[in-house]
Design goal:
- With 244 residues, the protein is of the alpha/beta class.
- The protein has one domain: Vaccinia Virus protein VP39 (Rossmann fold).
- 39% of the residues lie in helices and 18% in strands.
- The chain has a 7-stranded mixed beta sheet with strand order 3-2-1-4-5-7-6, with helices on one face.
- It is globular.
- The chain starts with a helix and ends in a 5-residue tail after the last helix.
């Protein structure tokens, strides 16, 4: 619990009892459900807390300023694409109760788990959708309707951009943790990202909160509408990454 407190303080978030209790219950649920089906590779609650929950807080650090994260996230609309066990969407919901969140995943068992978490933690303004991003992005209720779009370990940047950018509203931001080869990914996909209607991507190295290896957080701002031809049909963005 000490490390959760430190992580929240580093992120500028008051470690309220409700937040700490929510994290504890959530990590316990991940551990228990992982015994039933493949929810996460982490096998103890300490690992789950460090690698999944605390590490999720790193995306609350806005690029280029000392903005209070609550002012940036609360009362916004966010979609977490390929959310899996609810990372980072559930931790964000626990610390930002006024943030409206949609959790998207194509795996029915994982969506069932997420519904159970929402019920047990009594979370409000949060929905779970069992669908593929390629399909949901063409639904007018979701296309270009989100202030913030995030995805963790979903795909290489070209594919990630095709799947995620169509959800971002004009003026909104995509926030994506990436690996050490981020500059190469940017070089390979920069023209396509701009073609999708975004400014050139920016990134920063984030080493706290937590004791896990550094994360490189990538930021993509949407400045104009994305062509209706994107994303392409299910499976195509990953099988045939778009080339300009």
């Amino acid at each position: 619990m000490k490390y959760i407190n430190q992580a929240l303080e580093i992120s500028g978030i008051e470690p309220k009892a409700s937040i700490l209790e929510g994290f504890d219950k959530y990590s316990e649920m991940i551990l228990n459900y992982s015994k039933k089906f493949n929810l996460t590779a982490f096998k103890d609650q300490k690992q789950i807390t460090e690698e999944l929950i605390i590490r999720s807080l790193r995306i609350t650090k806005k690029f280029g300023g000392n903005v209070n994260p609550g002012n940036w996230f609360n009362e916004k609309k966010l979609i977490d694409i390929g959310t899996g066990a609810g990372i980072p969407g559930i931790p964000l919901k626990i610390i930002f109760p006024e943030l409206s969140i949609t959790l998207l995943d194509s795996n029915k068992k994982k969506c069932y788990f997420l519904e159970e978490v929402i019920k047990d933690l009594d979370l409000k303004k949060i929905d779970v959708i069992n669908a593929r991003a390629e399909d949901l992005a063409h639904d007018h209720k979701h296309r270009e309707k989100y202030d913030i779009v995030t995805a963790r370990a979903l795909a290489p940047l070209t594919t990630l951009s095709e799947l995620c950018v169509p959800f971002i509203s004009i003026g909104g931001t995509g926030i994506f943790p990436k690996g050490d080869n981020v500059q190469k990914e940017i070089n390979d996909s920069k023209k396509f990202i701009e073609f999708l209607g975004c400014a050139p991507p920016l990134y920063k190295i984030v080493e706290s909160p937590g004791f896990s290896p550094k994360d490189i957080i990538l930021y993509i701002m949407k400045i104009e509408k994305t062509s209706n031809k994107f994303p392409r049909k299910s499976g195509i963005p990953s099988k045939r990454p778009y080339k300009l």
